[in-house]
Each structure stands twice: as structure tokens, then as C-alpha cells.
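=== Structure Prediction Worksheet ===
Name of assembly: unnamed complex
Input type: mixed (protein and possibly other molecules)
Chain count: three
Listed entries:
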Amino acid sequence: MEDGAQEGDWVVRAAVYGAAIMLVIICGFPLLWMLLTSIKPDREILSLVPTFWTDSPHLHAYERLFTKTKFLTYFRNSIFVAGCTTILTITVGSLAAYGLTRFRFRGKEFIAAILLLTYMFAPIMIVVPFYIMMRTAGLSNSLFGLILAYTAFSLPFCLWLLRSFFQSIPIDLEEQAMVDGATRPQAVLFVVMPLALPGIIAVSIFTFIVAWNDYLFARVLIGLDDLKTLPLGLQDLYESSTLDWGMIMAAGVMITIPSLLFFLFVQRYLIAGWGAGGVKG
Amino acid sequence: MAPAILLIAGLVLYPVLYSMWLSLHAKHAYLPIQRFIGFENFKFFLLEDEEFWRALKLGSIFTFGSLTLQIVIGIGAALVLNETFVGRGFVRAVTLFPYMLPTIVVVILMRWIFNDSYGIAKYLIQSSGLTQTPIVWFSSGMVMITLIMVSTWTFFPFVVIGTLSRLQTIDPELYAAAKVDGAGIFRRFYHITLPQLRSVIFVVVLLRFMFMFTKFDLVWLFAGAGGVGYFVRTLPIYTYLKTFGEMQVGAGAALSTMMFVMLGVFAFAYFTFFRREEHL
Amino acid sequence: MNRYRRLTKRVLPLAIAIGFWTGMTLCASAQKVVNIWHTEPNPATIAAMNEIIAKFEKENPGIKVIQEAVGWADLDKKMQTALASGALPEASHGQTYIERSLAAKGLLRPLDDVVASIGEDDIFDVVKKLDYNTKEKKYYGLAHAVGADLIVYRKDFLREAGIPEQAPKTWREWLDQLKKLTVDTPKGKRYGLTLAGQGFWANEDLYMWVGSNGGRLFADNGRPTFTEKPVLETLEFWKELSDCCVPPDWLSQDYLGSVADVAVGKAAMVMSWGRASGYFEQYAPDQVKNNEFGVFNVKPLGPNGKEFLTQFDCEPWMIFKDSKNPEEAAAFLKFFFRPDNYLTYVKSVPIQLFPITKSMQSNPGYQALPEIQKWKFWVEAQKNIIQSNEPKPLLITRWQDLDLPFIAEIAGSGILSDMVIDVMKNGKTPLESATRAQKRAETLIGQLGYANW
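=== Predicted Assembly ===
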């Protein structure tokens, strides 16, 4: 802001920088500590007097992680499940949200209200009947079952968010396109979707996180080592007979770095996405 | 439209209705034992079971404690991140990342940092001389506070995202005009920023309340159901204990149903009190 | 229209993938699939199982074996869900009391043929006693491997405190030792003993100590006996222990954490399984090299105790009668226990997975394992207990308790662990907290429909 050079703004500036530094420390220190632990020799890790820096850093923990465990498989599974969930949710979600805002039918408001209601059920309540259904459908121990589960759980929030995005896009625009000879799918694809893009990105991230983080459903549905997602694989490494702190921390770092880079890249879209209409006043 | 409704109805609503039906039964978790008992499960929890009331109390402490901190810190951080300063993109990414970490990583990491023997937290606090006696983060008296801190750490970015996006849509001219009128920073915040944030805060509080009240994995992985977990045995944990520990699926379903009703009542009251002309 | 083509392009791969999946599933079902669930998710054991499975599949074309490895607490949950849905694996590990209750409901396939293929005489007596169902005169389970819980100590700390390396005979003697071992060091306080208290670990120490104090947890008719004197004395002893000689965060300590405490010198003693040896090798290599770890052959007795009780790690294999291919699963278990394969298995966690057969015990291949050489005293101590004492599984103070139909529910309810916490942290007297636990347990057993008193 150009007109910000008033008296007193110095204090604000200083406060802003101070707070920003605090944020970086609070949010970033655990990550740093994880990183430092992962490159320490074993006996320095379990030391009653923690050393901050180590004189003999090494990457043995990472070597063990990649050679002795199926970390890469877990990682691939997680990316696959989260990716597919996101694509599926966006496809189904935008179509449904579009329908909710553009077509007239009875019970429209009721459906919108009930969407939020779904979050009042504790997931723990759903997991047993869900497993029974998946087993019956032959989808236990299948990543596809997980994708379905996560899609079902992220859909309500996504629908609800996307709905308000579509509401904020004037209907005249697509009607104009249709007058110009476009079919409805064309109008949606070329006129509506680009305008809703920020919302779609925000929703994608939310969905991705749901699928990326889940432990409960994966635990119940997946047992095969080759199908485990990261949270499962990591939990089992954590609980297996000889707990290898260095390796666990290395796994944490390997999971964190991609997400950090990802956030560095998408944060502007994410925030723009919410602001453009998601939670508008 | 139809596929979305089908997915939600099939995969979420059906299990929920099934659970509600189960709550009227005495059903064993894995043995073929099931009989209809009407509202006995509900009667037991409400009238006889002191553990239920304890879980409700602990769950409320956890939910309100964590929610308050998330909202306060989240809004504060969003205000800071809305200013322009050098390295803002980096600070934003770092601030948002705890939300991206899988819960299991958060728990392993925090158990490591707050470990009583090798934890850096204990060491830092001791060497800074803040306290004479070392803080035992996982002791019976402290574990709830530690849990609230950790849950705040990992979930406050959700509030940041919501608030920040709204802040960016506030017309800068509003501030300029207020400055001309001689309004200081606090008055500007109170009269411009806060009213603009009202609706987003309304939604974020509602969502986070529901998420925290039903939060299972973080609490479970963090402290478990027994041992020191006794001091953070919230309703979802108690539900788990009934269902998978005591193998009483019917009783567990009754607890979930009660949680659902409580949230429903809360949401209704919340809407009635705070929501006026705006609609979702 | 080209948009549609573009859309189709995007959807098609997904459709193909789904089709491929379905195809794979159908193809696989032409073979007989045996699903095996076990509780050893560490990489070495998973690899060992894969080796055995590959050999088995080669010798038995037409059978496919799929292993799923999940830590035992999670496996319990997984199995319950599977049982609830009727979609069972062919074979699984489980707790002995769960095996008994499933057998009582007629859900398990007897394993007498598996036992016969090993040779009944070759199996340690205490394992037979554990898995033989005297009512039906059949085996419904068979431990995959066993282990006994023992007191592990650091010799250097005992030397430092001037305590001879002798197993304490009574709780009193033990407390005296532990008090001397609790000292301030430059690196912080060192405690005499460390305990695991997270989750329901308290269940484990409770029943062992009650058993070592001549007590029981259930009467003959199944009614809980928590307010009996041996239980109250145990709680008193525990309180004294917790106040004087145990780290203040022990209630949040998991088993591996407690082992770590001894590895790094935060505590002088821990009650542990053999798998801790690997942990010591990793985090206390110097002390291992200097032979500073020791194990007591016996455990101390309470004031009423005549014989000590220690925990038997002895999860049985069981085969579900109503699964798809129970016979093939039995064939696999016979193959699993064949000496060459069994050796592959036990050597993956050698100190923990103590073999159930005498012949494997003296098998030169087993004896020659470097870990067995290095930790011989630990293996010998376990062998000694398995041959001369009668270790028992979780919450079983008397063999007959195995037939109580509600042990799993009591274990999972947290009632016993809460009883301990009430005394330790909530300022209740042993009698008050035992009375409360007794009431809760009776209510639970009543709700389950087993109150026969």
C-alpha cells in the first residue's frame, strides 16, 4: 500500500514480521526437527540430552527406508488413491452442483441442507456397515473401494462449495452461448467451468487431503502389504518389532517435502478459490 | 446429479441408517448374537453409565478448547498473511502445511517432540529456565492440554485458508476511506474487517465444530483408549471402545446416534441464534 | 463434438482400468485362494512368509496364498469386522481367548491333522495345554510361536548400586532393589523400573501380579473377583512402585518406549519380550557388546504367592470353518510347520518367535543362528520357563478361565486398566477402585448375557 507510510505503521510492520516469523517457527520447526532426526546416527537419536545438530550426518535411514520397506509402493498407492478420488469427486461433484443450481426440481433446498448433515455422523459409526458393503461388492482389499469411500465422504462438502460457485456465475453467460449455437455440454465446458476453476481447485485440494490423510477406512479395508497407503504403511512400521526412529522420521520427511512444495505452488490458487465465491458473504 | 446422490446415499446414508437401527439391538461385534432391546442402550448411557457423562465432558473440553484456539490463531494468522511482506508466499506455504500432513505423521512427530526422555520440547523448556520442574507432557494432568495444542497445530490452517480467502475479497477502498476518517488500526479491524469476516467465520466454526466433535483418528493414535488415554477418552473414543473393545456394536451405534442428535441440536441452535437473513 | 471425443479420451483409460481390475479378480478366482492374516508386520517376517508362500505355491499349483500382516491390536479389529460381515480369511492369528470363544460357537476347523503332521509329542507340553480343548478333545488353535515375558536388567546399573545379580524373590525384595536403583544422574533421573501403561498394557501387569500373588480375577462361576485380597494387595504394591521407582509418564509409554528407556539408561529394569534384543542392538550397541544386559529366570512373588505367573505370548493359528478354502489353509499350515519352513519363519525374529517344537529347539540350524548365539541367556531363560513354569496368556490366571466366554470383552473394555489408574492417579483407595471396577465388569457381563451367578 502506497499510503502506508503513516506514523504507527512501523509498529504494525514490525508486528507483522514478528508474527510471520513466529508462524514459520511454530509450523516449520517440527518439520526441521524431523529432518534433523532423520540424518542423525541411531545412538544420537535416543539421547537423554538431545543434540540439535549432528557432526556425522548421514542418509542411512533413507537407504533403509527405500531398500528394506515398501515405502515407494505405499507412496504410489497414496498418490493413486488421492488422485483418482480427486478426479472422480470433481467430475461427479461439478455435474451435481451444476444440476443443483441450474435445474428446477422439488426438494432442491432440502438436498443442499442434508449435505451438511452428513458431517454430523462420526466416521467411526459408518466404518463397520461400510466394510460389510464393500466385502459384499468384492471391493475390500482394493484401492477402488477406498476411492469410492473417499469420494462419498468428500462429495458433500465439495458439492456444497461448488454449488455456491456455480450460483455466483450468471446464467445469462451460458444462455448467450447456447443462443450462439453451443450445446449445453459445450456451454458448461467452455463457459461455466473456466469461471468456476478457482472453486474447483479449492475443492480438489480438500478432496486430495481427505484421501491422503485417512487412516480409519484404509485400515479396515486394506490388509495387503502391496496395497497399503502411506498412513497404514507408516503406522505398521511404527508398530513393528524394532522401531527405527531414524527411518520413521525419514519417511515423514519424504511425505512432507512433496506436500510442502505442492502447497508452495498451489497456495495462491487455493486461497483465491475460496475467496472468489466459495464462502462468500 | 444422480451419481452424486447415489454415492452419498449408498455409501454414507445407508450405513448411518443401518447404525441407527442397530442402536436398538444388543449385537455382538463378531459372534452371531443379536436381539432387539428397544431403547435399553440409550437408557443405560443416560441413566446409569457415569463413563458416558465423563466422555461427554472430556469431549466437550477437547472440542471447545481446540476450536477456540484454532479460530483465534487461525484468524490472527490470516490477518498477518494478508499483509504484504517479503517472503509471503513461503510463509503461507509453511503455515498451511501442517494441515497437509497425514494424521499418523503428526502423531508420530509430536510424540517424538514431546517425549519425556528424548523430546526436544522438554529439553528446550528446561534449558530456557522457564520452569523449575520439567513438564511431563503426557502425564495424566497434562495430556489433554498437549492434545489440544497438537490438534490446534494441525487444524488451524483450515481456518487460515477460509479467512484469508475472504480477506482478499474485501474492497481496499473501505480501509482507505476509514483512514481518511482517522480510524486507527483497531477500529478499522472492528468496523470493517470483522463484519466482512462474519459469514466465513460462521461457516468455519460450524464445520470445525463438527469435525472436532467427531474426531477419532488423531485422539486415538495420540493417546489410545486406556492408560493416559483415560484422560482424553472423548465420545468417539468411547464409541470405539464399546464397539471394538467390549464388542457391543449396538451400544456403540447408540452412542454414535446420540452424538449425531447432539450435533443436530447444536447446529439448529447455532443457526437460530447467529444466522439471520443470509442463507447458505 | 470434439469435446466429447476429448472427454471420452479421458474417461476411457479409467474404464479400461476398472475393466482390467474386474478381469484380474475373475482370473484370480479360478485359483483357490488362501488368505492368511498374521501379527508380524515387520519387514523381515513379511519377507520370510513370502519365501514360504512362494515355495508352497510351487509345490501346490492351483493354490494361491495371500498374506496380510497387521499389528495385533489392529488385527483384532480387522478380524471382528471380517467376522461381523461373514467374509473371513482362511486362517489367522488371534488371541487364545478369542480362539476359544469362536470354537465354542462352532466357527473353527479343528487342527488335529496339523498337530499330527508335526508330531504331537514334539510340541512343548505347555503349548499343548494351552491349545488343547479338553471339553471337545480337539485342537482348535495352535500357537505359531511362543515367548515368555521376563525381567530384563542392566548389569552396569546393578553394579553401580551395589546390588548382586540375583532375581528378587518377593515384591518386597524387588521394591528394595528398585529404590536403590532410582538415582539422580548428570543426564537426569534414572528409575529402577519402567512400565508400559499406554492403551491396556496395564491389563498385562495386573493379571501377572495377581497371579504371582496367588490370586485370580474370576470365580469358578465367572463372577469377577476384583475385590479379593490378592487383587487389592497388587494394587497397593503397584501404587508404591509407581510412586517410588517408575518414570512419571509411564501411563503414556508403549512397550517399545519402555524398552528404549532401558536401552538409553533412563531405567534399570523392564519387563520384556525377546524382540527387545533387536532394539538393544540398534540403540545400545556398546552395552550389547559389553554384555551389560541380563535376564532374571524367575519373577518375584507377592505376599500370598506360591508360584510366579508370567505372560505367555502364544497367539494361535486358527482356521475358519466357513471360509472358502479351509482344507487348503490346513495344507498350508502343515507346510508352514515343516522344519525347513518353520526355521525360515522363526529366524525372522529369532528371540521373540521361540519355536513350539522341541526338535526345532535343538535343530542345529536354529542353534547356529547368530542371534541365538548372542542372546543365548535370554533364549535359555525362556526355555526354562516354558519347560518348568506355566506361563499363561493375557488375563488368564487359571487355565479354566480360558473357557470363560467374555475375556475378550473384559480385556477390551478398559475396566481393569481404569481400575489401576483410579489408584495411581485419581487418589482412590484400592478397595474403592476395585469396587467400581467390579460393578462395571458385572454390568458388562450381564449386558453380554453371561451373568450366571
